[in-house]
Amino acid sequence: MIGFTAVLMWALLALFTDATGNIPPFQLACMTFFIGTLVGVVWNLGRKKPAAEKPVSLRVALAGGGALFAYHALYFAALKNAPAVEASLIAYLWPLLIVVCSALLPGEKLGWHHIIGALAGFTGTILIVTGGKGFTIDPDATLGYALAFAAAFTWTGYSLISRKFADVPTKSVIAYCAVTTVLALVAHLIFEKTIMPDSAVEWMAVIGLGLLPVGAAFYTWDFGMKRGDVQVIGASSYAAPLLSTIILIAFGSALFSWSIVLACLLITFGAMLAAKNIILRGKKPKHL
Fold first, then answer.
1. What is the rounded distance in angstroms from the CA atom of residue 267 to the CA atom of residue 158?
2. Could you report the per-residue pLDDT of 101-133, keeping only the tens digit for each?
3. What residues form the membrane-spanning segments (predicted)?
4. Which of 3, 42, 223, 227 could form a Cys-Cys staple with 233, CB 3.0–4.6 A?
5. What's the domain range around 67?
6. Does 197 reside within a domain?
């Protein structure tokens, strides 16, 4: 459940990002990850620390921060080199990849219900992104598609490695966000022109992004991946684009359609099917 709160926060990503105006992507990443770093610092100061907890090594910080930055850089680049619908769909293969690739982790077992649940969620996401109207593959956008695939695999790798190194405390995400902030700043200075928020709404959107989707979400995701059911969290992640669309509709930034209702049913069914073992746990008949 803690891991799923990250999915709930990511549902606000589109709304908040749209409200930030014309701020360039890397600049926005730098600003929001800086706030996300502060979120972690405040949380870490207030928590009870185990006596044997070790500091985060530079190698771990650079690896985690590099992965976070690489995912966002690849995703931004994919959107610039391929149609947004197709690039977004390919990049959002990561929940399915997490479910399937989790079988490679020690102690994890992949069941048929995990795979079907994840596929149902991905089908629902297709309906949301395309509006039920289908999509076409543009041969000239091959580079963009490849970048989107790379983004999906990067986030999958980051998430599953977090599970494998469960002994690394979640406070390491503070260092990841700090490294990402620096790398985003460098990329911004090289590739972009600085555009500061010019209204209170844009500043509030930037702060909201840094506090939740690009802040607290990474900490709860890390905690969930290390301590929760990987397959269930992966399959339930397809709720993010659905919830994001519902929020956009509520704020008048998107239109209602019956394809969204069908997507809702598919994603809900997929998440419940993936969580079958958890739902049925404790409901077996007792032996007399």
1. 24
2. 988 887 788 888 899 999 999 998 888 888 777
3. 26-46, 58-78, 84-105, 112-131, 143-161, 173-191, 203-221, 233-252, 258-279
4. 3
5. 2-46+54-279
6. yes
